[in-house]
Design a protein that fits this description.
Elements: E1 2-11, E2 19-21, E3 37-38, E4 43-45, E5 62-67, E6 73-83, E7 90-94, E8 124-127, E9 135-140, E10 149-158, E11 178-179, E12 184-186, E13 212-222, E14 224-232, E15 239-244, E16 258-260, E17 268-271, E18 278-279, E19 286-288, E20 290-292, E21 297-304, E22 313-318, E23 322-323, E24 331-340, E25 345-353, E26 358-366, E27 373-379, E28 386-392, E29 398-409, E30 412-415, E31 419-424, E32 432-434, E33 442-446, E34 453-460, E35 466-474, E36 479-483, E37 491-498
Parallel strand pairs: 2-4, 3-5, 11-13, 16-18, 17-19
Antiparallel strand pairs: 1-37, 4-10, 5-9, 6-8, 6-10, 7-9, 12-22, 13-21, 13-23, 14-17, 14-20, 14-22, 15-16, 15-21, 24-25, 25-28, 26-27, 26-29, 29-30, 29-31, 32-33, 33-36, 34-35, 34-37
């Protein structure tokens, strides 16, 4: 066997991130106890915390939701402690972003209700596999006998089903709000709440934040009254909404001007007969119309509450005000990225029309699909239909690289959809070990190129002692996972042996 010596300095610090407690009472007459959390780290525990017992009389299955903050990932909850009063106090784990998401019934959850109860052997885990990538936790306790409850480590892993998890292209985050200036029809239900939890404040509307959301933005051309109607394609669907402004930004939305958490199905919106501005689940679905002024910009989120079953809706505007269609985006005909293996570059191409207001395009790049940096600027030709290209000389040679356009119309900009390339270029192969530093229980080793076979890993502490040695079979997924929760904090060296030589890779903390 050849020896791949990775001078990989791994700091095992077990920074578990924030601790999230389960709630005991719902927000605004609903069962959700907290705003949705978008995270890939942290510890989730019962309301008694890590040292106390959970409370009696937590009724109605109050719940909270955790969603991934990484593109294409799903949330995993790995329980390291679980102890409740058997049968009478139980937790369920839902595979989705809403209260009634389908529950897991795999052990130790029971069939058919998915109840997890009693003093259970750990660890065990549940991993989301749905379009949102989210997990929902509901808990019920009776009025006698409590126990130490549970503790679970939250993390994110690539979704088992291709296409699941947030994709950073849909308009389910405010930063990708769709500009509109007239009536629209949305025939595709949102995948979930996107990558960022936003528009939610404790004990306020919208209760718990997003479920399956679409974000829109519009600008007023002439002053007057403004109303809108959300008309579901299926009348049994339950859509809620919130509107922010005037001139709010995604990073500072503030409190909503209008917000409906109505539990009614069917039509909802604003009109000239309603008087209320905010309503909870008991509301009738309609709020007072707004008086708007020319030049003001507003942000609207439409949110479907059910378990990803909605069939879309039409959004119709009314009132005396007119919306501004002059600031609609450049017509982007196509956008894509392609890896050119012969010169190991990424070719980004796009075509645009209706460019009379366009000034330039900023090409942005990301290694995680979430945090983007500018890598170049291309000036618009300004008239007619045009084709463009840009070359990235340094894409990721192993894994995914994500690209998008930031398109400027004067002082207004908006984003294209995201295009990604997946590369496994063996000319630069090198085993990848992550995360570094380790903040969870698991160490991942990937990127074995085309190698399929046995490998041996050694983990060596700072004193030169081999503290872990394991053999693995590298399969078609070309990745292995090592449980290192028993290792104390410190700096370690990972050595990987295979029968196929690889380039040495050095990574430091």
């Amino acid at each position: 066997m050849n020896r791949i010596f990775l001078l990989l300095l791994i700091s095992v610090s077990y920074l578990q991130g924030q601790t999230y407690l389960h709630g005991t009472t719902g927000i605004r007459n609903e069962r959700v106890t907290h705003c949705l959390v978008s995270t890939c780290s942290g510890t989730y525990v019962d309301n008694g915390g890590s040292l106390g017992n959970y409370s009696n009389s937590i009724t109605g299955g109050v719940y909270r939701v955790f969603c991934p903050s990484v593109v294409g990932n799903c949330v995993r909850a790995r329980f390291t402690q679980f102890n409740t009063e058997a049968t009478f106090d139980f937790l369920t784990v839902g595979n989705g972003a809403t209260q009634n998401s389908p529950v897991f019934t795999t052990p130790p959850a029971t069939v058919p209700f998915g109840r997890i109860s009693g003093n259970l052997a750990t660890p065990f885990s549940f991993t989301a596999n749905n379009p949102s990538g989210c997990l929902t936790f509901r808990f019920t306790s009776d009025n006698s006998v409590t126990a130490s409850g549970w503790s679970a480590t939250l993390s994110c892993v690539p979704c088992a089903t291709v296409g699941n998890g947030p994709n950073a292209t849909d308009n389910n985050d405010c930063s990708r709000a769709t500009p509109i200036c007239s009536n629209i029809t949305n025939n595709v239900n949102s995948r979930g709440p996107g990558l960022i939890s936003e528009g939610c404040a404790p004990n306020a509307c919208p209760a718990g934040g997003e479920n399956h959301s679409n974000w829109y933005t519009f600008t007023v051309l002439t002053s007057g009254t403004l109303s809108f109607l959300i008309d579901p394609q299926t009348n049994t669907d339950d859509y809620d909404f919130a509107i922010f402004g005037p001139n709010a930004s995604c990073g500072s939305l503030g409190a909503p001007l209008r917000c409906s958490d109505s539990g009614n199905t069917g039509n909802t919106g604003t009109d000239n007969t309603a008087l209320d501005l905010i309503e909870d689940v008991a509301g009738d679905g309609f709020l007072a119309q707004m008086n708007v002024v020319a030049g003001q910009t507003y942000i609207l989120v439409v949110d479907e509450w059910l378990s990803n079953t909605g069939n879309g809706y039409t959004l119709n505007f009314g009132g005396t005000a007119i919306l501004d269609c002059g600031l609609l985006p450049i017509e982007l005909i196509y956008f894509g990225a392609e890896y050119k293996k012969e010169n190991r570059t990424a070719l980004i191409t796009w075509g645009a029309g209706t460019e009379s207001l366009a000034e330039y395009f900023v090409i942005e790049k990301s290694n995680d699909g979430y945090t983007f940096d500018s890598i170049g600027v291309v000036t618009s030709f300004g008239t007619g239909r045009n084709d463009y290209e840009f070359i990235d000389a340094q894409p990721m040679y192993h894994g995914f690289t994500y690209y998008r356009l930031k398109m400027y119309d004067g002082q207004v900009y908006h984003y294209s959809d995201i295009s990604a390339i997946a590369v496994d270029d063996n000319r630069s192969s090198g085993v990848v070990v992550y995360p570094n530093p380790v903040e969870d229980d698991m160490l991942n080793i990937t990127n074995f190129g085309s190698y399929l076979g046995e490998c041996t890993t050694e983990i060596i502490n700072s004193s030169g002692q081999v503290v872990r040695k394991e053999k693995f079979q590298v399969g078609v997924l070309r990745g292995i996972e090592i449980d290192i929760r028993d290792l104390p904090s410190g700096v370690y060296t990972v050595v990987v042996y295979t029968d196929n030589s690889k380039i040495v890779k050095i990574t430091k903390r």
